[in-house]
Amino acid sequence: MLGTTERCILSEEVLADVMSRWERYRQSTTAQQHHQHHHHHIFLFKKHLLLESWIDLTDNVEKELLYFQVLYTLRADKFPVTQMEAVMLCALRAQIELGNFIGTGMDYGEVIAHTLSPRLLSNVTHDAVAMHHQSLFNMDSQEAKQAFLNLIKSWPLHRATIFDVTQSFTSNWPKVLWLAIDESGVHLLEHRSRNVLCTYEYDYILNYSASITALMIITGSTRKQSKIILNTTQ
């Protein structure tokens, strides 16, 4: 991952070769900019398609991987949370990272910043997090982590991979949408919302075609078809 650009490394690729190509890409893009910014690469170990039957939260390694992947998704603003859910998630993270509530002088700034996206930071107050953190007294870190994941799992599409997309094929929907892909099918949602506009199960998808910046999905039956074109940089 470089900046907002993310690409999956294939199993047959050599890691050093990928790093070399990305370094050349970074140098070429930086040279074209008037202002020099510091860039660095990030390696993310992710499950891109979470299959319920394959998830084993009794495995501490897998549980840890999924926990940090969820945190990354939250910080990237790819998971819809209400204000109350945001407070509860921050309080649970505080219990995991800081331990028991010890008084009103505790600083939750770093915990909140490392849990939520910048867009949501102003919606969560330290006092609200402190109140919920106090209610978690004596909950050990593994219990808090499980409670954190249980709260995430309350959304039916929590296993989906989310993409920011734009559409122009219908005026009935907003231009900017979320594309969510999980084991049950393909879903289009209002941007940063849990409101599902439509769902296409895989049996209903006849064909698809993808380019670097666009995705075309053909749905329906052999007698009547519908074409969906989505644009994305992701």
Automatic annotation (TrEMBL):
Short name of one Pfam family for this protein? IRS
Q: Span of the secretion signal?
A: none
SUPFAM superfamilies in the cross-refs: PH domain-like, Second domain of FERM
Q: Which domain of life is it from?
A: Eukaryota
Q: Where is the FERM domain?
A: 1-234
Checking PROSITE patterns in the record gives: FERM_3 (PS50057)
Its recorded name reads FERM domain-containing protein
Q: Write the lineage as a comma-separated list.
A: Eukaryota, Metazoa, Ecdysozoa, Arthropoda, Crustacea
